[in-house]
Design goal:
about 375 residues, mainly alpha, 22 helices, about 70% helix
């Protein structure tokens, strides 16, 4: 009776009055002690109320019902389909909407509606994957910042590929605790490329020098990031680098000079096409003969052979490998030993470009140690 009277009154009532009345009616609807007859009457009337053309009335109704798990599914779908903030509230909060329905709204919705779904608490992985694949920038940004969402690593990689050049999204992704190493590296490359272009534009460095500084900075970040990762993630990173032509001999050598044997082993395994445990066994041969065969197979520069072999000897002689409690970065003790081998042969930068690279890295390691002291 009361609901029918409300509907009669609502036909001529002002918008703000209707909105207040709808809010009160909706709050009464979600009360657990509402009688069965009253609930049935309201169930019949709410679809008509939801069809009110006023955005304010729609929002009041949607906000009041969006958290309630017992609202009829047909009514929730009607509210979710409403334009503007009313529909977004329901998409962001309603526990009634199932995965199939949410995916449907993702694929056909506006950026704002996609973002509302992306921000849902405990967002399941299938929905997150759809947003990463087809969602707008706003939706992907909301997903990247949703700490409770289950976002698969490949989905984060899709977001990097689509929007990795946007600073705001890069920051959100870099703060994500589950960002795969390959995606992290791609973001660092994007940042470095932007900075390199800026430096060249300002003419602070020659183009070649800017490219070198950028490349070495990216390699440094890559090695440091790999040290924090599980073996399978390091493998995925190396494979990604190989696909993009960025698995260079300089990066592989830097990994050894940083004490990161795991990255070295995975890089050689991918380059040579042999299992990583076989690489480890060949590298551990103290005679050096097995390593020489492996070295020739993967085509590393002839002038760097001594550097790789000596760095491996240093690491094999130590009681620890890939220690996380060590300061990340180049290890001066390893570089000094390597350079001593070249000095014994009388090779300098003018004879071997690798020696020039090692001298530069030696200065970098000393500067790093000075800052850490």
């Amino acid at each position: 009776m009361i609901v029918r009277q409300f509907l009669e009154w609502a036909r001529t009532a002002p918008e703000d009055a209707r909105a207040k009345a709808v809010a009160a009616l909706a709050r009464a609807y979600v009360m657990p002690d509402l009688g069965a007859d009253d609930r049935a009457e309201m169930d019949a009337a709410l679809p008509e109320i939801a069809a009110d053309p006023s955005p304010l009335v729609q929002l009041e109704l949607a906000a009041a019902l969006s958290h309630h798990p017992l609202v009829p599914a047909d009514l929730v779908l009607q509210l979710a389909a409403l334009p503007g903030e009313a529909g977004e509230v329901v998409l962001a909060q309603s526990p009634v909407l199932n995965m199939r329905e949410l995916i449907g709204f993702c694929t056909s919705g506006t950026p704002a509606r996609q973002a509302a779904i992306a921000g849902r608490a405990e967002l399941p992985a299938p929905i997150a994957a759809v947003i990463a694949e087809v969602g707008s920038f706003d939706a992907c940004l909301a997903l990247a910042g949703n700490a409770t969402a289950d976002v698969p690593g490949f989905a984060l990689g899709h977001i990097v590929a689509r929007f990795g050049d946007v600073p705001e999204l890069r920051e959100a992704l870099l703060a994500h605790p589950d960002l795969p190493a390959a995606a992290h590296h791609a973001l660092i490359r994007a940042v470095a490329g932007t900075l390199s272009a800026f430096v060249e534009e300002r003419q602070w460095l020659a183009p070649g020098e800017a490219a070198r500084v950028t490349r070495e900075a990216c390699d440094q970040v890559t090695v440091t990031e790999a040290a924090r990762r599980q073996s399978e993630d390091v493998r995925a990173l190396v494979e990604s680098l190989q696909e993009r032509g960025e698995l260079t001999s300089a990066l592989v050598l830097r990994s050894l000079l940083c004490g990161q044997v795991r990255l070295f082993l995975e890089a050689v395994s991918v380059s040579a096409g042999i299992p990583v445990d076989h690489v480890a066994a060949l590298s551990a041969d103290r005679s050096g003969e097995a390593f020489d065969l492996l070295y020739d197979r993967i085509g590393l520069p002839a002038g760097a052979r001594i550097a790789f072999r000596t760095a491996l000897k240093v690491l094999q002689a130590e009681a620890y490998l890939d220690e996380l409690d060590e300061t990340p970065g180049l290890k001066q003790r390893i570089i000094d030993r390597v350079l001593a081998e070249y000095d014994a042969l009388g090779e300098g930068p003018e004879d071997n470009r690798v020696v020039g690279l090692l001298r530069r890295w030696q200065l970098e390691a000393r500067a790093q140690d000075a800052l850490a002291a």
